[in-house]
Amino acid sequence: MTPAARLQAAIEILDFTQAGAPAEQVLTNWARAHRFAGSGDRAAIRDLVYDALRCRGSFAALGGGAGGRALMLGALRARGEDPAALFDGARHAPAPLTEAEVAALAAPAPPAEALARADWPAWLLAPLEDSLGAAAAAAVLAQMRARAPVFLRVNLAQISRTAAIAALAAEGIEAVPVALAGSALEVRAGARKIAGCAAYRDGLVELQDAASQAVAETLPLAPGARVLDYCAGGGGKALALAARAPAAQISAHDIDAGRMRDLPERAARAGARIKVLRPGQPGGPYDLVVVDAPCSGSGTWRRTPEAKWRLTPARLAELTALQREILTAAVALVAPGGTLAYMTCSLLRAENDAQADWIAQETGWPVVARRALSPLEGADGFYCAQLRRPA
C-alpha cells in the first residue's frame, strides 16, 4: 500500500471509532476485509490510528475538525509534512483538499503547550495539576502524546537478565536493561516478534510495564509468605511475585474469573506455583494482600488512548467508590503483622493518596511506604501504598 492509501484506511477506521466502535475491533475487521494488506501495512495503519487517538485534540486543532480526515490532516501538519502531497485524489488516496481545509491548514498553529493540553480531557486538567503540580503535569501532558515503550519482565527464577537479552537477540529482538526495575527490559527493536519468540513461549519473559515491575519489587516477601493477589486480572502481579519468591504461597483471586482464564497456562509456562481461587472465596488470612484496584488507568493512556476520551466525572466517582469497597473487603484478609498493598495505574490523587489515607484512617493502620511513578520516569504512571496491620 502507498502512504496515501494507508492514510485513507486510517481515516475510515477513525470514523468508525468515533461512532463508538473500539479501535482494536475496527482494526481487526478492516484487516479481515482487506487481506491484500501486508503485516507492514497493518502495523503502519495501526500506528496512524493510535497516534490520532493519543493526539485527538491537537490533531483536530491542527487539521480543522474532529473527523478522521481532519485528524489525519492534523497528523501530517504536526509532522511538518505537506498534506496536499498525499491528499491528491489518486487511486486509494484521500480526496484532494477542499478550500475550507486549505484555509484551516494555513491558520496559525496553537502554541505547543496548548496542543498538549488539548490531548487531555479538559475536565481532568485541574485534577492532574492538583495531583502532580503544575510543572510536572505540563511535562506529563507532553510525554503522554508519544507512544509508550514496550517492556518485558525477565523471569529471574528461570534466567538472568543478561541471558534473556542474548536469547531475545538471537531471534531479532533488541532489548536493553531498565534501571527502574531489576527484572525489566525495554524492547528497542523487534517488538512485534515477541509473541512468537521462544523466550516468551517458554515463560522466560513476560510483557509487563517497568513501573508495575518496580512497584512489585518493593513488596515484602518472606520465604513461605502467604500472598494474595486480590484483583488479579491476568495475573501479572502474581507471576512477578512468584518469580521473586518461588517458595511463597501465592494465590490469585478476581471477582471476574474469566480474567484469570489464561493464568494457569502462564504460570505453568513460567514454572510458577499459583493457586487460582474462585470469585468471592479469597480465603485468608495472608501476610501480604495486593489490591491492584480498578481505576481510571490514566497512567497508561499512552497505550489505551480511547479510555481517556471515554472517562467521565460520573465514571471516576464510581471507580473511587469501588476502590473503597474493595479496600474494605481486603482489610479483613490481612493477617496480624501483615501488609496491605494498594495499587493503581492512575496519576490522580483521588485514586491514590486520597484512598490510602482514607483506609489508613478507617483501620488505624499506618502507611509504611508510598511510591508514585509517572511517565516522566520512562514507564507508565503507577502508584502503591503499603499499610501494615498491627501484630
Topology:
Elements: H1 3-18, H2 23-33, H3 39-54, H4 56-63, H5 68-78, H6 99-106, H7 112-118, H8 125-132, H9 134-143, E1 150-154, H10 161-169, E2 174-177, E3 184-189, H11 198-201, E4 205-207, H12 210-216, E5 226-229, H13 236-244, E6 249-252, H14 263-270, E7 274-276, E8 286-292, H15 305-310, H16 313-331, E9 334-344, H17 353-363, E10 367-373, E11 382-388
Parallel strand pairs: 5-6, 5-8, 6-7, 8-9
Antiparallel strand pairs: 1-3, 1-4, 2-3, 9-11, 10-11
Care to describe what's here?
43% of the residues lie in helices and 16% in strands. It is of the alpha/beta class. The protein folds into 3 domains: 3-119, no CATH class; 150-208, Sun protein, domain 3 (Alpha-Beta Plaits), CATH 3.30.70; 215-388, Rossmann fold, CATH 3.40.50.150. A 7-stranded mixed sheet has the order 7-6-5-8-9-11-10, with helices on both faces. A 4-stranded antiparallel sheet has the order 2-3-1-4. α1 (3-18) crosses α3 (39-54), α4 packs across α7 and α8 packs across α9. The radius of gyration is 23 Å and the shape is globular.
What does this entry show, briefly?
By secondary structure, this protein is of the alpha/beta class. It is built from 17 helices and eleven strands.
